User: Fold this.
Amino acid sequence: MPSTIESTPRALQRTVSLGVKGLALSHQATSELAIAHLRPTIPEHGIHRHQHDDMHLVLVLEGAYVSDATGMPDVCAEPSLIFNPPGTEHRDRFRSRDGLFLTLTMPTEVFQQRYGDVRLGDGPRRLPRQALSCAMRLLPEVRQWGSESPLAVESVFSEVLADARPPGADRSGPTDRLQRVLERLEAIGLPLPSIQELADLSDYHPVYLARAFRRHYGIGPADYIRKRRVHQAVSLIARGRSLAHAAATLGFVDESHLHRSFIAEYAMTPGAFRRLALGPREVARIQDARLASR
Assistant:
């Protein structure tokens, strides 16, 4: 059964405090980290500006989310991964209580000892899509906790940090020009761009744009759009929408296309994700409602 977390998971003493409030669908803690899968419980007007002493990684799965983090829109309505370094002060919150998120907390001393030399830039920020795909592997760990899970969680977190280096870290090139391309690919409500439009935005010749983008971000412009589309499917599936609805809404050829893309991105089927994200009771309720409506 879900439980309400106030500040500390109900676990053994001397475990890490989660530091986040919410209805816990699942939560675990050790002496070095705490991780939980949650739904928000506090209305937006009840969230005030506050500070977190420890590091928090927040994976938003579903719901409209407002964040002070660099790279976030005014309201984010699709999955996102937010890194909050120790000492972050913010007023991040969901617009309603039907959101769904996962949070990983690590005490400042542990984070500094292990990852203090990793350069992630200053302040909280939205992490790139490659890191979001990697962070999805935290969900089965928190829902199916085992003796090896603490190692698995830290391994995933280490990979997330490796993917989360600021654009251009250890690379050369005009990052501001490519950032304009990235912003166009992330734009909401616009038609898909042509390579010529992206080249005009970035002052690159079309022949060289795709190569420069891939060298800088590790993925080509078209693959970036495909990745974003699969990320958007996470929210629809977590909201209880059918695979057919998600495929049609997001422009996949059919359900099989979305199914294959989802497995390739997250190494799990959409059905497995739905069971992990919502729990078996909620999945059964959704299935019963669909059968009743036929």
Notes: DSSP finds twelve helices and eleven strands in the chain. The radius of gyration is 19 Å.
